[in-house]
């Protein structure tokens, strides 16, 4: 533990954040109210100055996965055209970037391959590292409909979550052992003669190496490493392989690891092995995080893709967009969010525009993030609340809330674009995200005037997979899945049917199996830090709690350290007792809650109450080298009783 200050405040209901209704600017170190005119001028001048002094790559944009596709389209265009860099990203980096990386590696496209309707009509559903009952409650209704129809539900999670309680079988694996478990399942499928030879022969490559790599993962070895009883491994393997329609859905239990992309690939391997992809009812689906994080990436608010998920390194693509936008696109990938934070530390990235993100509380090892943001010359935050991140800004711009106060579209985890409409009047003084962005662009020499529909139409004229999705059609059909290249037709609800084609020409690039190595969590358990902490969500709260923390709810019980009763007893702590929780990064305090759904040695916390218990002070920033996502799901901690004299420590 390097920082001995304990970060916790009195538990209980925090003061609600009040909606931002006036711009703020920093004067003599303090944020003070300002007119829109002054705040916008300061924001724009800061960016202009930064670019003039240090070039466009000294700028970074964090775009908002809560806001509309139209805002995300314009945020990436602002970055690429008004500023001239590809440094644009969003919370997808903390979340499903490994899913996008893994799926594009295998199939050339980063979207989930199936649809909710197909999930309802499938025979076997595997929810892997996903607590959908609490984190995807709407999607979970589709799962339950399938279960009522007789589908078999398997849940792979170290904790017996409320999702697992609905499952026919729960596979309680040790944190960070997903690759061994996937290999054990694969070997069992292969040895039972259940591999889908037709699909493997037609649609894949690299099978022999993969099968050889699975060979050491006998049932005994799999059970030893993962902790999952061999009988459950066999049962899942056979059920999934024999299913006529099998759905494999995953979320952060898979992605939020130092090897998140490898974890995703280990599940894709299972889909390829069984042929559960590329046909109706079978699919490989990441259930995405924030309401429009799928859309944000589709719109190009990521450093390596232009709208429509088109690769920036493709010169033809770049030329097309460059021509339409009147500025050449840089022929290289920008920095992702993780890299941008690193570049702040090194002094290379000096001005930053954060729209609807709260990295001060959401980043792993967040005290480090605060230091990095503190290095910036110019920070502009556009949010609906004065978050802890906004409190560090030079200029704060009050926005309207996309989900209820603005017009536009969102895209969900089944790639379905849907209209959203302003249903509430925004508080006086707040301005629409798009209007603010246009105003800033105008101050920087670009005559931007966009309605949401104009932004959308400009985007779909450039992005072939969105070309057929007009507002009129969305109105008429209630929602349309991409790809949708034509206004006259609809594509099937699932992707990659080509992989089943007999004709190699039509089949195109085969999907590769990937040979993977098991690499356990970076934060090793030791005598000093003997417990495994995993972090995640609860139904009653949302992310850093900015939007969900400020009102009373009979459901919400505040932050706790969830422990198995066996550990609590060994530590001599009782339910409700406030304890000291330390990792190699820092320390916090929280009351203990007993949970028999955990296994001994495993603890759980959320990150929903950071104003009271800032759990990201103790999480580790070890990141996936491919996707940049941090290992939020595996920290090593110790828990100590707080001696009577210790409260003086607590700040
Ligand atoms: N109510 C609510 N809903 C939300 C959110 C919210 O804050 N509140 N946030 C939204 C966002 S941004 C996202 S990204 C999604 C996230 O949705 P989920 O990923 O479902 O949520 P988490 O609770 O973070 O993690 C899921 C599970 O991963 C398990 N897990 C931990 N380590 C491992 C491991 O090594 N292997 C496996 N297989 N599993 C492991 C945890 O025990 C946990 O139950 O939810 C979205 N929906
Ligand atoms: N320990 C731990 N930490 C985690 C995770 C974990 O599992 N464990 N999960 C990670 C994941 S998956 C995610 S996605 C991140 C989330 O990280 P963040 O995105 O940084 O956190 P949120 O609390 O979702 O903050 C979203 C912000 O958007 C603002 N906002 C909402 N709507 C609008 C709008 O329409 N316009 C504008 N301008 N602003 C708006 C909200 O007020 C809020 O400040 O956290 C990550 N952090
Ligand atoms: Mo997320």
Question: Strands of the largest sheet, in order across it?
Answer: 2-1-15-14-13-3-4
Number of helices: 24
Helix share bin: 25-40%
Radius of gyration (Å): 24 Å
In the CATH hierarchy, the architecture of the largest domain is 3-Layer(aba) Sandwich
* Number of domain units: 3
Sheet with most strands: 7 strands, mixed
End-to-end gap: 17 Å
What percentage of amino acids are in beta strands? 15-25%
Mean of residue pLDDT values: 95
- What bound compounds does this protein have? ligand MGD, molybdenum atom
Assigned CATH class of the largest domain: Alpha Beta
User: Based on CA inertia axes, which overall geometry fits?
Assistant: globular
User: Which topology of the largest domain does CATH recognise?
Assistant: Rossmann fold
Task: Give a count of the beta strands, DSSP E runs of length 2 or more.
Answer: 25
- SS-derived structural category: alpha/beta
List low-pLDDT spans. none
Structure, described:
A hairpin with a 4-residue loop joins β16 and β17 (416-420). The strands form six sheets. Strands 2-1-15-14-13-3-4 form a seven-stranded mixed β-sheet. Strands 21-23-22-25-20-24 form a six-stranded mixed β-sheet. It has a five-stranded parallel β-sheet with strand order 7-6-5-9-10. It is 34% helix and 16% strand. The two termini are 17 Å apart. It has 24 helices and 25 strands. The radius of gyration is 24 Å and the shape is globular. It has three domains: 35-89 and 291-481, Rossmann fold (3-Layer(aba) Sandwich), CATH 3.40.50.740; 97-286, Dimethylsulfoxide Reductase, domain 2 (3-Layer(aba) Sandwich); 531-641, Barwin-like endoglucanases (Beta Barrel), CATH 2.40.40. With 651 residues, it is an alpha/beta fold. The longest helix has 19 residues, at 36-54. The model has no long low-confidence stretch (mean pLDDT 95). α7 runs antiparallel to α10 (219-226) and α16 crosses α18.
């Amino acid at each position: 533990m390097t920082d001995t200050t304990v970060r916790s405040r009195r538990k209980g209901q925090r003061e609600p954040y009040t909606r931002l209704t006036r711009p703020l600017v920093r004067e003599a170190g303090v944020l003070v109210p300002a007119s829109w005119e002054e705040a916008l001028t300061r924001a724009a001048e800061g960016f202009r100055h930064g670019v003039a002094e240090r070039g466009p790559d000294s700028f970074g944009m964090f775009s908002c996965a809560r806001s509309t596709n139209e805002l995300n389209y314009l945020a990436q265009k602002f970055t690429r055209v008004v500023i001239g860099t590809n440094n644009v990203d969003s919370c997808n980096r903390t979340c499903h970037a490994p899913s996008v990386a893994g799926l594009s590696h295998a199939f050339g496209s980063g979207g989930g391959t199936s649809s909710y309707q197909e999930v309802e009509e499938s025979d076997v559903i595997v929810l892997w590292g996903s607590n959908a009952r609490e984190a995807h409650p709407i999607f979970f209704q589709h799962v339950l409909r399938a279960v009522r129809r007789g589908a078999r539900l398997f849940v792979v999670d170290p904790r017996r979550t409320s999702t697992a309680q609905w499952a026919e079988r729960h596979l309680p694996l040790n944190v960070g052992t997903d690759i061994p478990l996937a290999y054990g399942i694969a070997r069992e499928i292969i040895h039972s003669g259940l591999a889908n030879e037709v699909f493997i022969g037609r649609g894949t490559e690299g099978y022999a190496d993969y099968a050889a790599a699975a060979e050491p993962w006998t049932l005994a070895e799999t059970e030893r490493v993962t902790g999952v009883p061999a009988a459950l491994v066999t049962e899942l393997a056979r059920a999934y392989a024999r299913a006529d329609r099998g759905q494999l859905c995953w979320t952060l239990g898979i992605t939020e690891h130092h090897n998140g992309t490898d974890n995703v690939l280990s599940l894709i391997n299972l889909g390829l092995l069984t042929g559960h992809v590329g046909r109706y009812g079978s699919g490989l689906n990441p259930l995405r995080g924030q309401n429009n994080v799928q859309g944000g990436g589709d719109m190009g608010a990521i450093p390596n893709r232009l709208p429509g998920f088109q690769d920036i390194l493709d010169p033809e693509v770049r030329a097309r967009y460059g021509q339409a936008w009147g500025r050449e696109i840089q022929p290289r990938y920008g920095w992702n969010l993780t890299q941008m934070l690193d570049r702040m530390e090194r002094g290379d990235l000096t001005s930053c525009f954060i729209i609807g993100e709260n990295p001060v509380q959401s980043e792993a090892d967040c005290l480090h993030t605060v230091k990095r943001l503190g290095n910036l010359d110019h920070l502009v935050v556009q949010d609906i609340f004065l978050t802890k991140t906004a409190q560090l800004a030079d200029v704060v711009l009050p926005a309207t809330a996309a989900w209820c106060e603005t017009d536009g579209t969102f895209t969900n985890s089944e790639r379905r674009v849907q209209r959203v409409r302003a249903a509430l009047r925004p508080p006086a003084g707040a301005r629409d995200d798009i209007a603010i962005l246009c105003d800033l662009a105008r101050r920087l020499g670009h005559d931007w005037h966009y309605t949401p529909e104009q932004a959308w139409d400009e985007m779909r004229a450039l992005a072939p997979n969105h070309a057929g999705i007009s507002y009129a059609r969305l109105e008429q059909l209630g929602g349309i899945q991409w790809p949708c290249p034509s206004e006259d037709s609809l594509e099937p609800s699932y992707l990659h049917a080509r992989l089943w084609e007999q004709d190699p020409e039509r089949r195109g690039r085969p999907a590769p199996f990937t040979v993977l190595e098991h690499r356990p969590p970076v934060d090793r358990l030791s005598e000093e830090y003997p417990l495994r902490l995993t972090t995640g969500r609860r139904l009653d709260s949302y992310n850093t709690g900015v939007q969900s923390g400020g009102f009373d709810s009979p459901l919400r019980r505040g932050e706790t350290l969830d422990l198995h009763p066996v550990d609590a007893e060994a530590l001599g702590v009782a339910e409700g007792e406030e304890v000291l929780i330390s990792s190699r990064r820092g320390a916090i305090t929280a009351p203990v809650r007993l949970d028999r759904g955990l296994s001994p040695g495993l603890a759980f916390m959320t990150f929903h109450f950071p104003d009271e218990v800032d759990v990201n002070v103790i999480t580790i920033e070890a990141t996936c080298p491919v996707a940049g996502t941090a290992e939020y799901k595996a920290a090593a901690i110790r828990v100590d009783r707080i001696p009577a004299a210790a409260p003086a420590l607590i700040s």
